[in-house]
Amino acid sequence: MDIIPVLDILNNQVVKAVKGNRDGYQPINKQLYNTTDPRDIIYLIVKKFKPSVIYIADLNAIIDNDVSHELIEFILRKFPKVQFWIDSGLNKIKLSKNFKNYVPVFCGEKSTGFELLSKKYEEHVCSLDFKNNFLGSKPIYKHIRHMSKKIIIMDLMQVGSDNKFNLKIAKKFIKNDKKDYYIAGGIKKVLDIKKAKQIGAKGVLVSSILHQSKLTKIFIQKEKTSL
Hints:
- The protein is of the alpha/beta class.
- It has one domain: Alpha-Beta Barrel (TIM Barrel).
- It is built from seven helices and eleven strands.
- Strands 1-4-5-6-7-9-10-11 form an eight-stranded parallel β-barrel.
- The radius of gyration is 16 Å and the shape is globular.
């Protein structure tokens, strides 16, 4: 089971995402890390948990097509041993070189529905984004066979809320055992991680549970090596 920390970055600060209502996103509580700077927070997360993967949502890119090029390059260069899954809303990130630890995310929310027919995105991690209904101009989830090996089931209505993760939608996709599925949104406690594992998820993306220190390094290391 892969436990992947999530950082939502807006205006060069880590913010608390709540139900996908981006107009209301505010910087995370500064007392959690004594900073809201993503570079410092990544350093602290890596030092404490030693994750192999970190997911980053560049909200400026997703919302306004304003990619945080310099910040992302700094992060990739500073933490070469960590693989970063980065959602830039299908916008190209201008990097000075090809970083081996950079894995782009195919943002279903921004898809026009035709891109998956090309091999251009076969190395991406695919994110299927939901907010009550699927976000995107076309229901690309109907074309699972064209997607990459790794698929995130991102239910924004559960993100940062008191809601449990959407077990129904997760089961619907995970029954296709030829893909590696990752659940994002609603992972509030260790029991949720165990439920996700039981239904066949390859991993979970976590934010609040991580920032609030509800996960221990021992648990994360155990889960990373248990499969």
